[in-house]
Structure formats: structure tokens, C-alpha cells
Please model this.
Amino acid sequence: MSERTLAIIKPDAVKKNAIGDIVSRYEKAGLKPVAMKLMHMSKRTAEGFYAVHKARPFFDSLCSFMSSGPSLVLVLQGDNAIKKNRDLMGATDPAKADAGTIRKVHGTNIEFNAVHGSDSPETAAFEIGYFFPGMEIFG
Ligand code: IDP
Model:
């Protein structure tokens, strides 16, 4: 079933010049970028995006990190896009991620972990709508 997911190449990975490698992994896995923009989020934008994590102890630090530099925000489309992207990403903590996953290769620690990917159809719908109006998605 073709679906859409929201991916973010986070500021740590953009700083490390890893955009090309990561986008290439999406494409090779059959995930087509149908919308994409480089953006430097304000802290408020990051707080709205991660609102579900508001009560977590790492919330403030996470939002500071996400607003520390530009990120590449993408909509990926393909069969089982949500799970496929989560599999490509690997576990939240790069130290626990499987070999060959994006977080294993490009992540630094549980916070600076290179990429974001929606974890369910409901969060994908919220996250895609948060960053992209329909007319900017070319699926
Ligand atoms: P996910 O990104 O793998 O879905 P979540 O639990 O939804 O993981 O956490 C969102 C983001 O918050 C993570 O990608 C990571 O950047 C950060 N994060 C998660 N757990 C911790 C933690 O224990 N300490 C610091 N940052 C964390």
C-alpha cells in the first residue's frame, strides 16, 4: 500500500554533509521524495512539532538541538513508507541501532541521532501537514 511519511535530516547530519547519502538511501529503498525543504526551525516550531514529548525530561534540549541549524524536511512516498523508513533509520539510540542503518552510520548519541521518521499513519498525517501545504507535495 502506497503511503506517505515525514522524514527530517536533523541539524547534526546536515552539518556533517550527510544529506546526499541519506536521500540516496531513501531512493534506493523505493521511497520517493515528493516534497522537500531545507529549513532552520525556530525553537517554537520545534516545540510544536514535538508537542507529544512536552512532558519528557529531554524536551527542551531536543527543541534546542532541532533549532540549532538547518534541517532537511521531506515527505517520502512509497509502499509501507512509514515502516520502511523506520527500518532504514534504526533504533533511537545509535548505539543500539542495527549495523548499516542511518542512525548507526550517522548518529552520535540518543539525542543527536541524524534523522526523524513518523511512527504511525496518524503522526505522519499531523507531521506532513505541519510543514507542507498540499500544493507543495508532488506525489
Ligand atoms: P524516535 O525519533 O526514534 O521516534 P522518540 O522517542 O519519538 O524517538 O524521541 C524523539 C527524539 O527525541 C529522538 O529522535 C531523539 O532525538 C530525542 N530523544 C529521545 N530519547 C531521548 C533521551 O533519552 N535523551 C535525549 N534525547 C532523546
